Amino acid sequence: MPKAAKPRGATSRASPLSAAESNAAQRKEAPKKGSAAKVAAEPKPKATAPAESYLFLVHMSDISEPNIDRLLSVPSHFTFSQMHEVLQVAFGWAGCHMHQFRLAEMLQEGDTPNFLGEGKIVRYFVGNDAGIPYDNNEDPKTEMSDKYTLKDVYFGEEFGQKVGVTYEYDMGDSWEHEMIFMGVADPRLRQGMIIPPEFQAVCIGGEGHCYAEDAGGVPGWENLKEQFKKRGDKEGLKDWYKTVCGNGDPKGLDPYKWDILTVNDGLAKIK
Fold first, then answer.
1. Other CB atoms closer than 10 Å to residue 25's CB: what's the count?
2. What's this model's pTM, rounded to 2 decimal places?
């Protein structure tokens, strides 16, 4: 896993007052010697506490060589609609397809998993993707993703860390992202990485290039990677990836290539 990298813009800033100006201001404001008037000490401004954030290791299922993972710090007040935006940026998706979050009960010893290898599905969170309104009257387990925050699910009374969450993008190719909740982030993590407060969601590590949009699921992705190892382009897949694919690259495909700084530049826009 690459070393953690601070986002662009995460640099220290000099005080707007020079040392000379600061000293002059202090002399000007100091009370005259011998004055009987008592000057009340001005209260120091309180430091703004950083918003509580959660750590997630998000792992894309059924793929290796390399794995595709992102380690994310996300504010607890973010809704699942905002979490959808975070995952789109973190994994380099182009937002071409619908998505859903699937909440399933955590399996206990002796439980029988469902056909997905999970516990009982208790809720779906969905959004209005690609301009297609989602009719949530069809399934009583379905809710709009902007109605629930991360804190509601991981520390609320209804779910309270009793469920696992999977993010599914593109119901055709069915790209599944397992959201592993690692706990509440220590505020000193942001301080140690010199992350400015305007960066709310932050990627602090990861590996692997994102899947290609419309590649045809895991088998299609594996085939695309193999084609870039060969000379020529009999199937036209290389040209398709370079010129047509929604999140392709004109320079070609390197399965290990990703840029944490580019990811964090995109995450900085999510408020």
1. 11
2. 0.77
61: closest CA among 177, 187, 174, 209? 177
- Is residue 9 within 8 A of residue 196, CB to CB? The reply is yes
- Rounded Cα distance, 159 and 145, in Å: 15
pLDDT in tens, 9-20: 444 333 333 333
- What digits encode the pLDDT tens for the residues 96-152? 899 999 999 887 777 777 767 788 888 999 987 756 666 666 666 899 999 999 999
Compute the distance between CA of residue 104 and CA of residue 101 in angstroms, rounded to an integer: 10
The count of residues in the chain is 271
| Beta pairing partners, 133 | none
- Cα dihedral 219, 166, 54, 202 in deg (nearest 10): 30
